[in-house]
Amino acid sequence: MLVAIDIGNTNITIALFAGKKIIGNYRLTTKMQRTSDEYGFMLLSFFNASNTPIEDVEDVIISSVVPKIMHSFTSAIIKYLHHEPIIIGPGIKSGIAIKSDNPSSVGADRIVDAAGAYYTYGGPVLVIDFGTASTFDYVNEKGEFLYGITAPGLEICAQALSSQAAQLPEIQIVKPDTILAKNTVKSMQAGVIYGYIGLTENIIKQVKKEIGTPMKVIATGGLGRVISAETDLIDEYDSDLTFKGLYLIYQRHLKQLEKKASR
Which of 45, 103, 117, 238 could form a cystine bridge with 98, CB 3.0-4.6 A? Predict the structure, then answer.
């Protein structure tokens, strides 16, 4: 069994793979500081919930954009799952060639999503991850990561309204029935959701215009379902895209190890 973990700025998501199939999917908040034992107890509870023995774990792979928790989290995996995790970074072959100006600055999450989109849906592909920030990354038909656009995420937009304007409340991010709002909460929801649909569509259109060739558009991320349902410019919403990318990279890593062992 493979344990695939994505550590983002807002959430940590964990998938348990039996072969290619995800048999468990769990989420916890990133923003709380925890000890390695606290992370360990949470991991054990996830295994208990899926009726999976710890002894079935063959490997653990992690994509992380939050360096400050990695020591505690890695220690938890070693202590409770008894494996040294594979961490996406230098030396791990993703199958995606990073051709941006500064390849080392491209986050592990974006590389994983690019691999998941390219090897699942083919290229060229524009992969959109609606997370803490929303990222729009273009991968060409050769599997080369060429361009990336970063925008503030939906939650950041909503929080900016409530935190910067004294009389505006915090809101739930849901699409109102109409943009013609009659109260403060509905007006904020309308502004955030409909505004974000416009942002998303305009970025997609501009990327397509400047590149000048057809491409697939694949979306993922917790809030991606909300926006994907409201536009015809997104071809597919895939909630498991990051996990698919981690699984694919893991398989490439195994082949790399096998080649080294056969020399």
Answer: 103
